[in-house]
Amino acid sequence: MSTDPLSWLDERAAERVDAGLRRQLRERVSESSAIDLASNDYLGLHRHPEVVEGAIDAVRRWGTGSTGSRLVTGTTTEHALLELELAEFVGAETGLVFATGYAANLGVVTALAGRGTLVVSDAGSHASLVDACRLSRARVAIAAHRDVAAIERLLAERAEERAVVLTDSVFSADGDLAPLAELHRVTRANGAVLIVDEAHGLGVRGEGGRGLVHELGLAGEPDLVITATLSKAFAAQGGVVLGDARIRAHLIDAARTFIFDTGLAPAAVGAARAALSLLRRDPSMAARVLDRAADIARIAGVAEPDSAVVSVVLGEAQVAFDAAQACRARGLDVGCFRPPSVPAGTSRLRLTARADLTATELETIAEVLGDVLATARGKESVTA
Ligand code: PMP
């Protein structure tokens, strides 16, 4: 028997290499000149002088770290202002900021659902919602992707008094939208709370980027909770839960990822406030993200997306990986999703649009993607 307790990792690594699934960290070396179609910086604000200044100013006033839990020393007036501003922006009663979007999802789900609760989650919900289900100790049911009828059945037939339904508003892999209006009708009719992760909706969908919940006229509904990250359109870090004041108060009492996590760093709070302020001043930024996504979709020969995410399904993991590498070699930074992030046989390039993409950049994108996708699609049709 091997005495090396880590030898199983060598076997696991070999399996992943064989399957073309080994992941590598790609370091960004100083300011890259590559065209960014891989990040979630949807509004292109993460180097904007006002956002950078917002972070620096917050650090000067509050220091580099928040110094403690939000319950002890980790809440500054900057945190409180950000919560008010975000709530006002999306049309919610209150907001509560967490250290990450991941922590916000874990916190709100585990605080609202426990033993004796049914949690129903869309099969495409983000990994943080999946983990939240596992942590909650509730009975968990996974409904097929965007299947409102299945969710309605599960809610109607439940034995539990309380129920919570989880979904992304914009799904992160494909960029498709949840049927939120129907979902809310069903959750309300069945006495359930609807939790909507707007990570990819805020800054992109809705009037001036107020999100899909706002766009559908559902903002401020007391039985609907929004979660979001500050790391995408808002160009910072952190997460937020937006909703009814009773929920906020309960989270402060009961959400473990709020209570036992250090408060969000002042720099991130300052940056997020500055980004939100820029978006309010130029609400057309949100529509520009969707326009640029439509441009990229046309170039890639796929349907116009409903979000910033342009998903170009290529098939086998190796084909998608090679295509991504070819793009990167020619100065186009793209995302590549392979199993387990997406189902086997649907590996893809994931291209994200930015509000600030220029006409010159779009020309380069057309040139590079045209070549790379022709090769990748040729390859796939030969191996298929
Ligand atoms: N929800 C969704 C839909 C996401 O895409 C992400 C980030 N990848 C998160 C939550 C987690 O947010 P954060 O990165 O702020 O932890």
TrEMBL record:
Enzyme class: transferase
Pfam family, one: Aminotran_1_2
Pathway listed: Cofactor biosynthesis; biotin biosynthesis
Enzyme Commission number(s): 2.3.1.47
Keyword Zinc attributed: no
GO MF annotations in UniProt: 8-amino-7-oxononanoate synthase activity; pyridoxal phosphate binding
GO BP annotations, alphabetical order: biotin biosynthetic process
Aminotransferase class I/classII large domain ranges (all copies): 35-369
Catalytic activity: 6-carboxyhexanoyl-[ACP] + L-alanine + H(+) = (8S)-8-amino-7-oxononanoate + holo-[ACP] + CO2
Cofactor: pyridoxal 5'-phosphate
Keyword Lipid biosynthesis: no
Gene3D superfamilies from the UniProt entry: Aspartate Aminotransferase, domain 1, Type I PLP-dependent aspartate aminotransferase-like (Major domain)
Keywords for this protein: Acyltransferase, Biotin biosynthesis, Pyridoxal phosphate, Transferase
Record note on quaternary structure: Homodimer.
Family (UniProt): Belongs to the class-II pyridoxal-phosphate-dependent aminotransferase family. BioF subfamily.
Protein name: 8-amino-7-oxononanoate synthase
Native organism: Nocardia alba
Lineage: Bacteria, Bacillati, Actinomycetota, Actinomycetes, Mycobacteriales
